[in-house]
Amino acid sequence: MKQCAVAIVGAGPVGTMLAAELMLGGVAAIVFERRAHAGIESVRALGLHSRSLEVFEQRGIADRFLAAGDAVQVGSLAGVSLDLTDFPTRHPYGLSLRQRHTERILREWATELGVQVRYDCEVTGLVQRGDGVTVELSDGSSVWAEYVVGCDGGRSSVRRFAGIDFPGVEATASSIIAEVEMTGNPEFGVRPSVLGVNAMGPADDGLVRVVIARDYADAPDRELTLEELRLAITSVWGSDFGLESASYISSFTDAARQVAAYRDRRVLLAGDAAHVHSPVGGQGIGLGVQDAVNLGWKLAQVVQGVAPASLLDTYHAERHPVIARILRSVVVQATLQRGDQRTTALNEIIADLLEVPAARDRITGLVSGLDIHYDLGGDHPLVGRRMPDVDLETTDGARRVSTLLHAAKPALVDFDTPGLQEIATGWADRVPVVPAAYNGAWHLPVLGPIAPPSAVLIRPDGYVAWASEGSSCGLADSLEAWFGAS
């Protein structure tokens, strides 16, 4: 039986990102993908939010995505654009970029790092034991892994095999989504209805992307035929615009679910395997990528024996409440898309509220992912929040904070704090100290300007684990909690 440290199930954006993070952390994972090849059958997700771009900036690959997409203001609520232009970030915008390109860029980067994917290989069973997990595969073989991470989508087999509950808000509406070939002239645009949004727009390769809202009770538990799709299109637009074929027909609902636990012993979940919701708002890929970046460095340390297995409990403790908050917002966004009079009135009231700058900033921070706050304790306002990508003066010259994180390692930035160097010596093999200088206030989304700390400990995922205003108090405890004993 083949053995590996970590088996990742699913080679989509989340599984690929996690495999790359583990590789940067010194752990080679095996990625199993049921698809026969790397291609995906549809456009699927259409873009990325600001925080996702910051995460890619931390790994030095943001330019690859920016070169392939278009910077736009992608956030909205109640018909109001959530403009990030005045937000304190290097990326005060979202990115219009279809999922097949997002996957391609991540796959190319991961391949450069040495990540290996086994395609046409479906997981058919899991058996957990005290020291690992036996993964049963569709070709009849088995693999033993210390840990298994399910990144295999909303219908996750890993989640099912592990017996992890998946509670949430039940579906009330369903939508058909298809990519089709039409010989006529389709009417691109949006047509709201009492059931939700109907939309038609361009997809890749000259195809047309169609979304049709329908009552959940009328949605069959199977893929529609081409003729049924033709009738659905005609019922909304009065024509099928010469529908000839469909490269992809599927559906989604407005259900919102999140696993009761992100970890069951040696099995963990990330991305859609851990949380599903309506695609309205475009949160899916970004949330999954951030799951992977939160988990990767922690799992690498546990596998290498640097940190205890209990460090993995912080993955659930941090991501579960953050995702729960996002899921509530997506439920609201999906509800506001219904075109009846009551919803129209509600949209108008919310639009009025968003005229208030503080309200608008609060919602914009939520949708963009820039206001994430993990409850890590500590009194400093930076702790648990994303580290601003400020320009530092270091002994190596001017450096942006994001460049310190390219290798997915932590950084202890010291602005001349008494006793810091002596304490940090015990973790010198894991946590580099960066002597630096900075002038002026630091600006945080939603919170506003704060005085810069005298020192800050940045985790590999870009979040602040410890910050000080003139003292090294608490630094040793924080270093040990996140990066093992000295």
Brief sketch in words of this structure:
It contains 12 helices and 29 strands. Strands 1, 2, 8, 9, 10, 11, 19 and 20 form an 8-stranded mixed sheet that branches.
Describe the protein in words.
- The strands form seven sheets. Strands 1, 2, 8, 9, 10, 11, 19 and 20 form an eight-stranded mixed beta sheet that branches. The protein has a six-stranded mixed beta sheet with strand order 23-22-25-24-28-29.
- Helices cover 29% and strands 28% of the residues.
- It contains twelve helices and 29 strands.
Please supply descriptive tags for the structure shown above.
29% helix, six-stranded mixed β-sheet, 29 strands, 486 residues, alpha+beta
Write the layout of secondary structure elements.
Blueprint: E1 2-9, H1 13-24, E2 29-32, E3 47-48, H2 50-58, H3 62-68, E4 70-72, E5 76-77, E6 80-81, E7 94-96, H4 99-113, E8 116-118, E9 123-129, E10 132-137, E11 142-150, H5 157-162, E12 168-169, E13 173-182, E14 189-193, E15 196-202, E16 208-215, H6 226-237, E17 243-253, E18 256-258, E19 263-264, E20 267-269, E21 275-276, H7 284-303, H8 313-335, H9 341-353, H10 357-368, E22 391-394, E23 397-400, E24 411-414, H11 420-424, E25 433-437, E26 442-444, E27 448-450, E28 455-458, E29 464-468, H12 475-483
Parallel strand pairs: 1-2, 1-11, 2-8, 11-20, 24-25
Antiparallel strand pairs: 3-7, 4-7, 5-6, 9-10, 10-11, 12-18, 13-16, 13-17, 14-15, 15-16, 18-21, 19-20, 22-23, 22-25, 24-28, 26-27, 28-29
